[in-house]
Amino acid sequence: MKLFLSIIAAACLGYFLGSLNFSIIVVRMMTGRDIRDMGSKNAGLTNTLRCAGKSCALFTLLGDLFKGIIAVALARGFCHLLHAGMMPGNDTHYIGYIAGFFAILGHVFPIYYSFKGGKGVLVGAASFLAVDYKVFLALLAIFVVMLALSKYVSLASIISTAYCPLATLLMSWLIDGFSFGRSFLYMVLSLPMAAMVIWMHRSNIERLIDGNENKFSFNTININ
């Protein structure tokens, strides 16, 4: 019963917090426009940066990061209070992955915005920051390197996300010292999170293949 309550709480916290799309909120508050009618029409950080400027992008970044962190932290705290964590030590890592997945789901299909949201990269990254900062740092390093080499935000996001399950397994098993079985469970729980983010980039993948994807450059961004 405690496990069931923890999972339900994690799913609800993740989804309803994840549905708060700060790209939509911030751009509407600061410009009076709908980011979903601008540029690529994607309610995410990159489109906000390109179309609404650095100020809007900064607040979007902070909002989408914190909602993922808060969702995971609250879910893990509730699980810990119920003593529904894995033994030994009442480990609540597993519930963090569940909250993180539903936060991504809420961001992608937000109940507050007719189920039309962003691609979930930021909230996914924030979830991993809250669950295991070492995995987050490893994926961030991959993202930065790929962005520097390719200049494609989408490609860097896709590749770093694809490494997420492997990084989760290796960090849990080799660095944190968890058993292979538990580390494998964490890897399995991270798979839906990674799959959701990559699936939401399918249009970017098509443009990358066709050579039509926009490259990232600070020089093309207007200060807002």
Structural commentary:
This protein has 224 residues and is mainly α. The protein has one domain (2-219). It is 71% helix and 0% strand. The protein is built from eleven helices and no strands. The protein has helices at residues 2-18, 22-31, 45-52, 54-81, 93-108, 121-131, 133-150, 153-162, 164-175, 180-199, 202-210. Helix 1 (2-18) packs parallel to helix 5 (93-108) and helix 5 packs antiparallel against helix 6 (121-131). The radius of gyration is 18 Å and the shape is globular.
Count of separate DSSP helical elements: 11
Content-based structural category:
mainly alpha
Question: What is the number of E strands?
Answer: 0
Terminal residue distance:
51 Å
Form type: globular
Mean pLDDT: 89
- Quaternary organization: single chain
**SSE order in H/E notation?**
HHHHHHHHHHH
Largest sheet: none
Q: Output the radius of gyration.
A: 18 Å
Low-confidence stretches: 220-224
Write the layout of secondary structure elements.
Blueprint: H1 2-18, H2 22-31, H3 45-52, H4 54-81, H5 93-108, H6 121-131, H7 133-150, H8 153-162, H9 164-175, H10 180-199, H11 202-210
Helix pairs in contact: 1-4, 1-5, 2-4, 3-4, 4-5, 4-6, 5-6, 5-10, 6-7, 7-8, 7-9, 8-10, 9-10
Question: Concise description?
Answer:
By secondary structure, the protein is mostly helical.
